[in-house]
Amino acid sequence: MTSAVRFQQVSRHFGQVRAIDGVDLEIAPGEFFAMLGPSGSGKTTCLRLIAGFEQPSAGHIQIFGETADGVPPYRRNVNTVFQDYALFPHLNILDNVAYGLMVKGVGKAERLKAANDALELVKLPGYGARRPGQLSGGQRQRVALARALVNKPKVLLLDEPLGALDLKLREQMQEELKSLQRALGITFVFVTHDQGEALSMADRVAVFNDGNIVQQGTPQDIYRRPRTRFVADFVGSSNVIAPDLMAALGGQKRWASLRPEAIHLAGDGIEATVEHASFLGAATRLGVDLRGSRLHVMLPAGAPVPDVGAGIRLAWQPADIHYMDDAA
Ligand code: ATP
């Protein structure tokens, strides 16, 4: 099948800075794809390369099987939703949403109908006459989405679109974005530094570090089988166990990861000391000292919580130990 987006050994260098360096990437049509990584790891540069705001220093990009080399942004069938929404403050909401169609020369009646339909899609019918300044942050975010969707792009790029929203609204918008994407079948490519957001929304995730993709896979893959220490540390709250401790605990002398929820209290387990307990609502997270290393243990709600300072015994299934490729 033709990929929606394909990178072949794509690099983008700014002088000495290798913003991205030799990236291979395939995004399937209709996929919800997340680019996850710390600040400066190259996610936004990748998105801008897909949009056509940047050109590769080396390598090739294809969009739905056609070369994007030298193709300007407006001829790519790709739209971007920016983090700051980039709405025109002096235009009302309907004209903001219809703007792209006006530029393309679509007639007034047709473009206003399309803009109204798009506002309905993002659950803002009846807001067309307002100005951006008269909307909440969450509503402005929806307008930005409607403005991109009205062009019926084949690929929608979203650059931290929920970053400016408070937690509750962000969770609500995560669910809505996901449903909308399913309903429309458009390929969504989403940049975030929030691992929870990437894992909960995406069909597949690419983890970026230092201008490279260090792992790609389903959220379950990335979470349960991090390939490197960096991925284990960055994605989720995994315990990273050094080779010496792993060997002392009867395992291999290699770096390993172990999820806090895979550790439980057991009378015949390995001795540890409770140093910290945080009540999280649905669970309690313990910080424990195990032979000089700090590990986290997630206790399910309702389980008895040991006192700070208490000696406890911990156990896990050998299958929950995940050895990593390297110590990177
Ligand atoms: P953030 O989450 O902070 O947006 P990011 O992962 O999206 O980070 P990029 O914005 O892609 O990272 O930047 C990757 C690297 O390239 C950074 O070191 C950045 O400073 C550099 N960079 C990006 N754009 C330019 C530019 N126009 N000129 C010079 N350096 C740039």
Automatic annotation (TrEMBL):
GO molecular function: ATP binding; ATP hydrolysis activity; transmembrane transporter activity
Pfam families: ABC_tran, TOBE_2
SMART domains: AAA
Keywords recorded for this protein, A-Z: ATP-binding, Nucleotide-binding, Transport
ABC transporter domain: residues covered: 5-235
Gene Ontology annotations of biological process type: putrescine transport
SUPFAM superfamilies with a match to the protein in the record: MOP-like, P-loop containing nucleoside triphosphate hydrolases
GO cellular component labels: ATP-binding cassette (ABC) transporter complex
Entry-linked Gene3D superfamilies: P-loop containing nucleotide triphosphate hydrolases
Record InterPro entries: AAA+_ATPase (IPR003593), ABC_SmlMolc_Importer (IPR050093), ABC_transporter-like_ATP-bd (IPR003439), ABC_transporter-like_CS (IPR017871), Mo/tungstate-bd_C_term_dom (IPR008995), P-loop_NTPase (IPR027417), Transp-assoc_OB_typ2 (IPR013611)
The family this protein is said to belong to: Belongs to the ABC transporter superfamily.
Protein name per UniProt: Putative spermidine/putrescine transport system ATP-binding protein
Record organism: Rhizobium lentis
